[in-house]
Design goal:
Layout: H1 9-16, H2 22-33, E1 43-46, E2 49-50, E3 60-61, E4 64-68, E5 73-79, H3 86-99, E6 114-120, E7 132-135, E8 151-157, H4 171-181, H5 196-205, H6 212-254, H7 257-279, H8 285-292, H9 296-308
């Protein structure tokens, strides 16, 4: 058996967000959000796209979105690329989902909690050792939890999961192992046979059950992600090196802290421009602006320069 990579958005949506995925998603959310407890008994998988509703507000495209039986909305995103301002995007999506529950004339009492579950294929919080992190609103001096704490952010950082197959103990361990390693497995491990939902996830992920068109779409998506990972990594490394050299050079010439700071700032800007140049063939101007935090005008200038070369 060969399995598709659950970390790509195409495969993730097929496994967890399709019409046949309800029981799979319930088990998955209970494992990652509720520590393996059977808290969720029922849910409805709904359209994950959030239209703007307000002029000028960004569209939001999530991987999976579900409404629990108690009215709580869970939005789920599998993120492979570590792009700039990703943390802000997570918060934006959660706040937008929360605010846009209300229809015209409805009171705030109609608002229901929102849980934003984000799985990353990179370390989101490099100074923390915890695999799963949860964030809610708290008072800073004595850790008092805000009474109407309706927005919760849950992060699962796959690189921090270090257990081997024979060390898996809980359903949480098994689901995270599935996400991280299914692509490299050739059969369903024996110690995952006790979960019918996991078995069903493996069946959906089995490449033998996909049509040629689905396999082609998946392979194109995987190749695209690998290309972007390489482009972003190369652009950042080149930008950092140029920034260091420029900062040192200006610091030596001027001998002042102001000069060194200007050099560092210019280096940071050049790093952004280098990343943008690498992404020009694959992304439109607005997407590159969001990734690099360059202005749209700056991205368009880079594109025009590239087209004229």
């Amino acid at each position: 058996m060969r399995f598709i990579n659950p970390k790509t958005d195409y495969a993730f949506k097929k496994i967890f967000g399709s019409d046949e995925s309800k029981d799979i998603l319930i088990s998955f959310l209970n494992a990652l959000v509720y520590d393996g407890k059977a808290t969720i008994q029922d849910l409805e998988i709904i359209n994950p796209n959030l239209p703007p509703q307000l002029q000028g507000l960004k569209d939001t495209y999530l991987d999976v979105k579900a409404k629990l039986a108690n009215g709580t909305t869970v939005i789920i995103e599998m993120q492979v690329l570590n792009v700039q301002s990703f943390g802000k995007r997570v918060l934006f999506n959660a706040a937008k989902t929360y605010a846009f529950q209300l229809q015209s004339g409805e009171g705030y009492r109609m608002l229901k909690p929102v849980i934003a579950l984000t799985i990353t294929d990179f370390e989101m919080f490099e100074k923390r050792n915890r695999l799963i992190s949860r964030f809610v609103y708290r008072e800073t001096s004595d850790d008092f939890v805000y009474p109407d704490n309706d927005i919760e952010l849950v992060f699962v950082e796959l690189p921090k999961f270090a257990k081997e197959l024979d060390e898996l103990e809980t359903i949480t361990d098994r689901w995270i192992y599935f996400l991280k390693f299914a692509r490299s497995l050739t059969s369903i491990p024996d110690n995952m046979n006790d979960s019918p939902e996991l078995q069903r996830a493996f069946e959906i992920a089995d490449r033998a059950n996909l049509s040629p068109d689905e396999l082609e779409a998946l392979e194109r998506r995987e190749m695209f992600i690998y290309d972007q990972q390489g482009a972003v990594a190369l652009g950042r490394e080149e930008g950092r090196e140029e920034g260091r050299q420029q900062g040192l050079e200006e610091g030596r010439e001027e001998g002042r802290e102001e000069g060194r700071e200007e050099g560092r700032e210019e280096g940071r800007e050049e790093e952004k421009r280098e990343i943008a140049r690498k992404l020009l063939p694959q992304f439109d101007d607005e997407a590159i602006s969001n990734i690099t935090e360059l202005s749209l005008e700056a991205v368009r200038t880079l594109r025009n320069s590239s087209n004229n070369e």
